[in-house]
Amino acid sequence: MVAPDWQTFAANTTVHGLRYVFESPSRFRRVIWLLLLLGAMAIYVFLVAQSVAKYYSNPVNTEFKEIVPEKGELTFPAVTICNLNRFVKTKINMFENDDNFYKMSLNLSACEAIKMANIHLSCGQGLLCAFERFGSAVAENCNETTRQQIISVLNSTKKPIFNPEEFLSTYGHDFEDMFLYYCRFAAIENCTSADFQPSLTQNGLCFTFNSGENATTVRGTRRAGTSGGLSVILDVQANENTISEFSRGLRVVVHDQGTFINLEKGFNVFPGSHTLARVTTTKRERLQYPYHSNCTQRLIPGMPRYSRDGCFLQCEANTTLAMCGCRIMGIPVPSNSSVCTFQHQFCEERCAESHNPSKCSCGIPCEEIEYTSQVSYSQFPDVGAAKILKHLKAYNKSMEYQRANLVFLQVGFQHHGYTLVTETPSYRLGSLLGDIGGNMGLFLGCSLLTLFEFVDLLWSVLESRADRSKSISSQEQNDPV
Ligand SMILES: *[C@@H]1O[C@H](CO)[C@@H](O)[C@H](O)[C@H]1NC(C)=O
Ligand SMILES: *[C@@H]1O[C@H](CO)[C@@H](O)[C@H](O)[C@H]1NC(C)=O
Ligand SMILES: *[C@@H]1O[C@H](CO)[C@@H](O)[C@H](O)[C@H]1NC(C)=O
Ligand SMILES: *[C@@H]1O[C@H](CO)[C@@H](O)[C@H](O)[C@H]1NC(C)=O
Ligand SMILES: *[C@@H]1O[C@H](CO)[C@@H](O)[C@H](O)[C@H]1NC(C)=O
Ligand SMILES: *[C@@H]1O[C@H](CO)[C@@H](O)[C@H](O)[C@H]1NC(C)=O
Ligand SMILES: *[C@@H]1O[C@H](CO)[C@@H](O)[C@H](O)[C@H]1NC(C)=O
Ligand SMILES: *[C@@H]1O[C@H](CO)[C@@H](O)[C@H](O)[C@H]1NC(C)=O
Ligand SMILES: *[C@@H]1O[C@H](CO)[C@@H](O)[C@H](O)[C@H]1NC(C)=O
């Protein structure tokens, strides 16, 4: 009964070739057909295995799109401006008997310690001498002996009395003094010094325009070009220089609101320059695990928006906090313990050596906005600008002073739009099934329904077996033994 079933099946099945394997009159041709059929099957299995492997590797496509914002308004980035000089000379050299000393709230708690050291230095001089590595060279009336003396006094208490953050923010530049009459946003809106929020970074006090902090609205602009963004004239107060990163001028960082201010990503501006920063925006959207980017939607305490460099720095600060019990200056950590200072110096160094960034699990963010600045400079002011300043603003400083101090900074978008870079899965279940089906058709000439032909065959085989065993057992019953 089985043999005829199989013959009919082979003759009628939609698997091409199977028929010839059984029906060809010559044995030679039957063998050839069998080999062809087996070959096609092998290739098919190989290709299906490849497709499945590709599906499980979760490949992605990266698409680049140029977007022009619908309402015509582009969100303007935050612009952080820092004076490279960290401490104002006038403040540093101000003695306690000066009227302004208390007015400028220069009386820090550590000032008592300087007095205790019994040396004739102002509070600022003493702290600068102790705080900076080359303090004895930089601060007046200070030599290495005095430096060690001050450090030992500041280090003598169990609880630190010296707070570097406080020192940097009170003895640093005031924005009011750097701000000079002129500030425009998008060519029409007047901005004031109050629009620049102070923020403490690792290198000292900086000021952020359009920070979006404290629920202030984030500005947007409808105009491309440097005049469509922020234009501001600043005075770097070069004659107030004490110590900086070996040069005078400003550091400017263009960044996304709420992300950690990474000064490494900024550019320097020299005094006496008209600085144009043309910003291009790239917005990136990535896919989470299991896709290759494995991006993270993590939130980090103290930073409204995740950024990878902020995460790494906080991770290191966390390690220091755990090992030494103090915060690294300028890095937000969820703790109100005091800032690291002389008491923690050696612990801090040991910690920095032993810190292992690969343990931080700081992945790349799923959404990220990158601002890339193209910066160009020319000399500022020219004769015309100097005359305008004098005429309109009654600014009477000499040309020499202006060339040594003023910066005209303009930050604006290069294009009216941004580049959106998105990742999309490139090989989904549909594509996998398509490949499996397509190859099935190409190599075996059959489709999904052919599988049911085999099921059907199996069914009829089982059925006929059952029939036969029934008839055999009924025969046995009929046979008298
Ligand atoms: C200055 O600060 C010290 C320590 O905080 C304090 O004892 C002292 O009274 C302050 N001086 C004035 C005049 O406020
Ligand atoms: C350092 O300065 C103090 C006072 O300003 C002075 O007494 C001392 O001799 C100086 N030490 C050195 C090594 O110059
Ligand atoms: C901005 O300030 C200038 C004078 O400094 C004034 O003439 C102008 O009207 C102000 N613009 C706005 C929009 O307030
Ligand atoms: C936000 O506002 C509070 C209270 O007005 C103030 O203490 C804080 O410094 C502000 N933060 C910034 C970044 O300006
Ligand atoms: C730092 O520690 C805090 C609290 O322990 C934690 O919430 C935060 O995620 C840590 N930051 C990093 C970057 O590991
Ligand atoms: C942090 O501040 C809170 C409340 O202000 C206080 O209860 C806690 O003891 C402080 N922690 C440290 C380590 O100072
Ligand atoms: C501060 O004092 C501690 C001990 O109290 C000591 O280990 C550390 O070396 C001192 N730091 C400096 C800079 O002298
Ligand atoms: C994905 O990233 C997280 C950290 O964001 C990490 O812990 C995890 O091991 C990564 N997974 C893979 C498969 O790389
Ligand atoms: C500049 O103007 C200020 C007042 O605005 C005045 O006190 C000062 O004498 C002037 N300087 C010169 C060089 O004219």
Automatic annotation (TrEMBL):
<keyword id="KW-0812">Transmembrane</keyword>
<comment type="similarity">
    <text>Belongs to the amiloride-sensitive sodium channel (TC 1.A.6) family.</text>
</comment>
<keyword id="KW-1133">Transmembrane helix</keyword>
<feature type="transmembrane region" description="Helical">
    <location>
        <begin position="31"/>
        <end position="49"/>
    </location>
</feature>
<keyword id="KW-0894">Sodium channel</keyword>
<dbReference type="GO" id="GO:0005886">
    <property type="term" value="C:plasma membrane"/>
</dbReference>
<protein>
    <submittedName>
        <fullName>Uncharacterized protein</fullName>
    </submittedName>
</protein>
<keyword id="KW-0407">Ion channel</keyword>
<keyword id="KW-0813">Transport</keyword>
<keyword id="KW-0915">Sodium</keyword>
<keyword id="KW-0472">Membrane</keyword>
<dbReference type="GO" id="GO:0015280">
    <property type="term" value="F:ligand-gated sodium channel activity"/>
</dbReference>
<keyword id="KW-0406">Ion transport</keyword>
<dbReference type="Pfam" id="PF00858">
    <property type="entry name" value="ASC"/>
</dbReference>
<keyword id="KW-0739">Sodium transport</keyword>
<dbReference type="InterPro" id="IPR001873">
    <property type="entry name" value="ENaC"/>
</dbReference>
